[in-house]
Write a structure and sequence with these properties.
Number of strands: 0
Strand content: under 5%
Oligomer: single chain
Structural class: mainly alpha
Number of domains: 1
Helix content: over 70%
Order of helices and strands: HHHHHH
Shape: elongated
């Protein structure tokens, strides 16, 4: 991360990681997304139950992988833009708390995909942002 080449390698590795997560993580169907949105908007007990479903986990994983791919693509074009590292760090830290929990609901090996260290990845990305010197 101390060099531009190191930051480019980091951006490439993160992009590959996010593409792999997107590939292995199941996606909600349109009907599941509609049901989930309805339940979450209902408030009360229904919303609380919906928060703890596989559908919610898949929704959160999709938000993570979409954001991760977008920020990674931007980084691969402009590896010295601190804002892009911060954006990626935000995506990682936002998903970190729930990733391993929801992965288990869909029989995804959280250890294999290193969900338990997403916070560490966020910190590395923040460090890369600081190292760009811009």
């Amino acid at each position: 991360m101390n060099t531009a080449d190191g930051r480019v390698a980091l951006a490439s590795a993160v992009k590959s990681y996010c593409e792999e997560i997107s590939r292995v993580y199941p996606q909600n169907s349109p009907a599941e997304n509609a049901w989930l949105d309805k339940e979450l908007r209902s408030g009360g007990e229904r919303a609380m139950r919906a928060i703890d479903t596989s559908e919610r986990g898949r929704q959160r994983a999709k938000v993570f992988t979409d954001g991760c791919r977008d920020w990674s693509a931007a980084l691969s074009k402009e590896p010295d833009r601190p804002r892009y590292y911060v954006g990626l760090a935000y995506e990682f830290s936002r998903f970190a708390g729930d990733a391993a929990y929801f992965a288990k609901k869909d029989s995804i090996d959280a250890d294999l995909y290193a969900f338990v260290i997403l916070d560490d990845a966020a910190q590395a990305l923040m460090l890369a942002a600081l190292m760009t010197g811009k």
